Amino acid sequence: MKEFFILAVVAFFSLVTYWLVEPFAHGQMHAHVESEHFAYADLPALEKKGDATKGADTFMAGGCIGCHNVKALGMETGMSAKDAAAAYGVNPPDLSNAGAIYDAKFLADLIKNPAHATAVEHKFNDARFHPMPAFYGAGGDDIDQEIADIVAYLQSIAVKPEEVTPEMAFKDACGRCHAVRYTKWTQLGEMPNFKHKKDELRFQADVLDYQDAVKGYMGKLPPDLSMYIRSRSEHFLKTFIENPQSQLHGTAMPRTGVTAESAEKVIEYLEFAGDPKAEMRNEVGKNVMIFMIFFVLFAYLWKRQVWKDLH
Amino acid sequence: MAHFEKANSLNEWFDQRLGVNTLQRVLAKEYWIPKDINFLWAMGMVLAITFGILLISGIFLLMYYQPNVDLAFDSVNYTIMQEVGFGWLWRHVHAVAASVVFLIIYIHMFTGIYYGSYKKGRELIWISGMLLFVAFSAEAFSGYMLPWGQMSYWAGMVITNLFSAGSLELNGVVEWIRGDYVPAQAFLTRFFMLHVLLIPVAIMALIGFHFGALRLPHVNNQNGTDIDFEEEAAKYKSGNKAASKVIAFANDFMSKDMFVVAVYLVFFFYLVFWNYAFAMDPVNFDPADGLVTPAHIYPEWYFLWSYEILRPFSKDIGLIAFAFAQVIFVMLPFLDRSPNTVPANRRGLFKFWFWAMLVDMIVLTAMGKLPPAGIFSTIGLVAALVFIGLWLVLPIITKLEKKL
Question: Could you tell me if B153 and B283 lie in one domain?
Fold first, then answer.
């Protein structure tokens, strides 16, 4: 039939145009980065089996708690996040759940050589040290064994990997540098509801001080991530989290070393922040489609009835 | 005062005062449309419905939008998209309709070109239609500024810069348009005004003009048949509807229109809920930042072809070519010298001209988005030259066309 032929011609040219300006053009503009599925293949494999009990001692002897809180066990440095950032550039992470959120291989390499594991060796070298000093052993004769013990210890004190929530993963791995204003997240934690304006202003001043420290450390203030789920594709976010250098060569952002599961949780958090209506969109969409199909049907029957006398 | 009888029904009461029966006869029941048409003739109704969708969704968005450089982005992406009940739905509907309306406009335009519906008495339909295209373009551009994202800001920067007219360096004009040295508060507020008041009013007036221009010359048909509307209407009214070459606007034409509209809406809502990225550029979900230029700046897809006519040339020549592209379609009824009002496939060389123009504009559209480097740059330049060349040869090839 002639009308179907015309429709096919219109659809053909429309689809060709769509394909050219969307998938094809975006493919040309943004190089495709293949995901390694958070295997961290460039990092050495863990050869030693760690012992968590020994790790507890090594952890203390290694001086980790000089800078890191482990609030789950009541270990605190006594330094506020703001002061810690002023001292180190960024508030060192609380290690309570590090064993669940970060990849074991990554943790081991991080302890041994922080700039290498976080892929910021272009920033830190012999002249400019990474704020986290490398671990040179706690007196034992096998440093790799000691590191394996520490990692085993961190895993033993953490929640089970499946208990990591989107909020925990995001706040630990991203939230010390990035704010998310749509969830009221600041680098100093969730913005509380203040009763008095001056308390609010004090909190905001602390956030600004903290941000200044991060700015000095990173070169610029890391962006607010509220709308990143819409402004970047999910694939971009995943490959970027996996290795920031792959998408933005030379960036100051360190590789965070999260596990594949934790990365999923981070994405979930960003969806909650920037696209919380995704599920509702799907639901409403289905209902609208059902309505529209009936609309088409009735419109067709009306047309048939009206045109009965016209042919 | 005129003499009024007591009305026996509500309809009569209104008819006495407003002449509703006359209106209904003139605008619907005895507004004759050729019977020999296809679904492309419903694009006018599809456009009217889409404009209605834009107007209604726009009114809802207007209730929460804040035209302030510090609040605009969050009022759209947080207040409307997250806090207001179904705000996300209106925003998606508005954004997708704003993009899809151009797809339908282009289909409507190329339908007119293919069937020669701009000739012999229909010149004003074409011209008012092209004025509508200009008004819709201005409406789309001003609306694109409002979320105050990165693409809003940088598109505003690039487009307002065009008014410096290249080597004439009319920077004062650019500042006057922006109300500042760069797009800022004054810029946002005035584009807000243009988007929600001046341009919509102009569009509604132009739609009235477009419909008015259609009434006397009547709608074209798909075979270029010369119809004696009075004779055919008499046949229709005498009850011989099957033999008549015309149908009434309502309900005959309308029932077919609504079927096409219904099918179109299925496609439209599919895009709204599941495939909206083409109409809501991801880059515009980054807030405006005058210190960071996006890696790739490109307009929305419907402006790409004219953008690509600007881009491959040097500054001044590019601007002249761009200005040429903006006005040349308006001139179509006068550049086409052929007396034949028939479909392009029966019009000698014009048949090839039509398909060449369509393909060339698609090529320009694609190249306008791609980074202007290497082979894409060359293809873009050739396509831009072909575009200009096609318009230059149009009067010649149509003059040579044999009268049918």
Answer: yes
